[in-house]
Amino acid sequence: MNVVSRFFSLAVALSSSSVIAASEVGWWQVLPQWPIAQPLQQIDQRLLQGWRQLQCNRVDATQLWLPAEAAQLGQLIAAFAEWPRQPLAPFASCFQLRLYQANQVTCRLVGERQRLQCDLPLLPQQLQQAHIVYATGGIASAVGDYQINLPITASLNLLGHELAHWLGLADEYQLSDGIAADFCAGNYDHPALNVVVTDTATLTSKELQQLWHRLPWQFAVADWRQLGQLIEADTWRLGSRAEQVGLHAIDSCISTGKFAWRPVASMTAMQYIDISIWPELYLQLIERQLRR
Questions:
Q1: pLDDT, tens digit (0-9, with 9 covering 90-100), for 190-213
Q2: Residues 212 and 160 grouped into a single domain
Q3: Would you state the torsion angle of the CA atoms of residues 179, 183, 188, 191, taken in this order, to the nearest 10 degrees?
Q4: Is residue 171 part of a domain?
Q5: pLDDT tens digits for 10-49?
Q6: Can you tell me the distance from the alpha carbon of 171 to that of 252, in angstroms, rounded to the nearest whole number?
Q7: Beta strands in the chain (DSSP E)
Q8: Is residue 15 domain-shared with residue 146, that is, in the same domain?
Q9: What residues make up the domain containing 231?
Q10: Pair (111, 149) in one structural domain
Q11: Could you tell me if residue 172 is inside a domain?
Q12: pTM above 0.70?
């Protein structure tokens, strides 16, 4: 089972689960000697309630790793308490806190872009849990199928973007040459609910109908002719009107000579990682996949 299938199963389970009773000890109920106690005391009650809403004592909860000694820990907790207000929160609403000391988790910066890579002290039964790791620096990265690494200064918008990959959404910005070579050729394990790739920008009527039938968002396109404009006998140029759900060009596959398309014309959080714009259609795509 790849990470998306596993995460879909997890999200369904979490969305139907209730939080632990107030009389039980939740992961957010921090003991006085814990380094996180002081930052929690500095959060106002509204934010603290948001933080508590994330509690979950399930074995399959997403593990949230925070550096206990980081100066920005309080700010991160305060920011994370707002997560229940995010559009993707219903799909990722169950976390367990894992405070760690500097000698327990090794994080380093790798590659030209200095992406984070963190090694966790995991037991065998924890290897297939989902882990979100915050560290003191670097650029966000995903490692394998079960781990996301983020700088402690990362916004909730960036967290949402990374979690959206687990939920089946693909990047809509220009991909690096290596990633584009695989993705645009269809060599990827995860669904791409919001992106399709074509070899050309023109298709025959038959080809356009075939494309329409394989669109993940076909349910939102009433007629295959919304996907292009007829430019000559039986030749359609791909691209929909701005106000329509259909095919709208993005830059993902520019380096490969192929053409990438998303369903909406407006900007989204999968194109710009520092915004929180999630079209209703994208949430529907996730929900429909969860039901399968």
A1: 789 999 999 999 999 999 999 999
A2: no
A3: 120
A4: no
A5: 444 444 433 333 333 333 333 333 445 555 555 666 666 7
A6: 7
A7: 62-67, 95-100, 106-110, 115-119, 131-135, 141-143, 147-151, 196-198, 202-203, 228-232, 235-238, 248-250, 259-262
A8: yes
A9: 177-291
A10: yes
A11: no
A12: yes
